[in-house]
Design goal:
This protein is an all-alpha fold and 167 residues long. The chain has four helices and two strands, in the order H-H-H-E-E-H. Strands 1-2 form a two-stranded antiparallel sheet. The protein is elongated and about 120 Å long. It comes from Chloroceryle aenea.
Length: 167
Amino acid sequence: DSGNIKAGLEHLTPAEQAKARLQLVLEAAAKADEALKAKERSEEEAKKRKEEDQATLVEQVKRVKEIEAIESDSFVPQTFRSSKEVKKSTEPTELQYEPVTVGAGTVDASAPEKEAPPANIPTAIKYQDDNSLAHPNLFIEKAEAEEKWFQRLMALRQERLMGSPVA
């Protein structure tokens, strides 16, 4: 190639020859740079694939070991606990024990009012008059319940006969 380049540049002035050589050098450098970048990209992709394959291999080995542990006789089932539940239950308990009263029973004005922490949300309905979970009016005699049901059914039938739509 160097012989062809010299032959091609002989008819040019020395300044034009230098300019042409510079142009050829820049083109060659750009091609070499692109080749290096392509090589680096392919190496990075190969490294990523290798890491992913290793990660999946590690995950597969871990999964197989966990399955074997579950299938073994020494496995003891445990209840599932979410990490979110653990965080929620630990944070409110810390906030719960802050002192609110100051001096002779006066409330500190600087203490901000906080919402009830999730741990204190009731999970069952409790009525004031009784410690039972259900309202006492829900417990009636079977005969009385059938009589009330029958009266309600008759009232609905009469409404329907009179032309009113029954929901």
